[in-house]
């Protein structure tokens, strides 16, 4: 555990030291769970967005992208259910004065039971070696069965209590399980209360006539309310999708995991509108497509798993998370939800406007069903940073820190490094920079030893370093150093554009998706 915490701390400090992420308004001691993206963070974020947008909008003839407003008519949130039901159950510890999500305390307790089950399995795997039959062991070992049954019964009791809004029973469960404040060990809890996560704001100049608004807690509703506008103007037939990237805001109760749970964050969401009765087929398709999109990044298949929801949100008839192995364990990275016709129906009722589609094949009007894919941009950023940040010991015993980002996502594609500024090397390097800057985001650096400059660019994730030396002036070649292999080769300046493009083009990711 300590090792994982150290790894996570390293990610946080690396992100700050190399201009990826800063605490928001740091000179005023920051704002809890709000972060700013620095010069390299903004580039990485833009590249992630591009990868998502190209995969959704550019590769799919039947998906279009929009950019709807953050502020929406307040009835939107009544219709969507957010005013009444976008709550988290919170509980305070009377001694430490810390606030927790009651459901997360219980889920963490269950995760510890699962850890214990896993330990039994690992021990047995070691004991039996190649002869080990995991499935059989899980089905027959009494301790593993006990741990798993206990988890199941705790989670189903919690789900039932939350469904019935029986918050006294949620507290009773916490007390029965003797769950303590993880930091202080105190079991002195308040009652459990519901807390709405939406941020309120006001529209209008005078206090009397101001209208109460909310900052959107998800981008999806901007897509739903525009469904007919987009369908009619794009003239797409069902099935078709609307994609959007944008900010969302949630007044999270517990926001202690850096950019994993923020109060202001970005979502990349796609709503796929389908004929009623076909939604579960498309739901399965999108689950697989989204997993493939993640796998193309090369962060390791073993770091992803599906978590199919047993307790479904009021609007869904199927839902799953793609979980990623963050430094603090497997956690939700993306949600795929079959949202039925709940949202469009609710907007029809609250607005009094029809949100129906005439299906020429079925020769009828209906409210489409929706399959949604929703990923937190910041969470993917964290997944990339934590997975790609590595400390390596080199053959000569020296060490380096490298951020082995997928080259298409790297903030800087190549660093142009004159060995020295004088003797015309600086000017030659600037010429290369000026020639390549139309195609790639580059940096030019002429300070420090070349070794130090290589190390700094490794830590930034720059796929290539291009070193200009005296020979370059006469034979128009440079040394090209590869971030991952650290191999250096002599290449012609005229070849640089092709070589960098081959390595960093989005095509490398996108062609894996078909
Ligand atoms: N429209 C559906 C929706 O918003 P969600 O599961 O609440 O579903 C979707 O959110 C994704 O948004 C999550 O899988 C997660 O990646 C991201 N997300 C949610 N809350 C977040 C937060 N407070 N900070 C960062 N990302 C968050």
Structural class estimated from helices and strands:
alpha+beta
Average pLDDT for all residues: 95
Examine the secondary-structure arrangement and name the CATH architecture of the largest domain.
Answer: 2-Layer Sandwich
**Mind telling me the CATH superfamily name of the largest domain?**
Bira Bifunctional Protein, Domain 2
Low-confidence stretches: none
β content, as a range? Answer: 15-25%
GO molecular function: ATP binding; bis(5'-nucleosyl)-tetraphosphatase (asymmetrical) activity; glycine-tRNA ligase activity
Binding site for ATP: 250-252, 260-265, 332-333, 376-379
Keywords: Aminoacyl-tRNA synthetase, ATP-binding, Cytoplasm, Ligase, Nucleotide-binding, Protein biosynthesis
EC number: 6.1.1.14
Give the helix/strand layout.
Elements lengths: L1 H16 L3 E3 L11 E3 L1 H20 L4 E4 L8 H6 L1 H4 L1 E6 L6 E3 H27 L5 H7 L1 H22 L3 H10 L16 E4 L3 E4 L7 E4 L5 H5 L2 H8 L5 E10 L14 E11 L4 H17 L8 E5 L9 E9 L2 E12 L1 H10 L5 E3 L4 E3 L2 E8 H12 E5 L5 E5 L10 E5 L6 H12 L5 E3 L5 H11 L3 E5 L1 H6 L1 E6 L5 E5 L3 H9 L2 H4 L4
Parallel strand pairs: 3-9, 19-20, 19-21
Antiparallel strand pairs: 1-2, 4-5, 4-6, 7-8, 9-10, 10-16, 11-12, 12-13, 13-16, 14-15, 17-18, 21-22, 22-23
Glycyl-adenosine-5'-phosphate (GAP) binds next to strand 10, strand 13, strand 16 and helix 13.
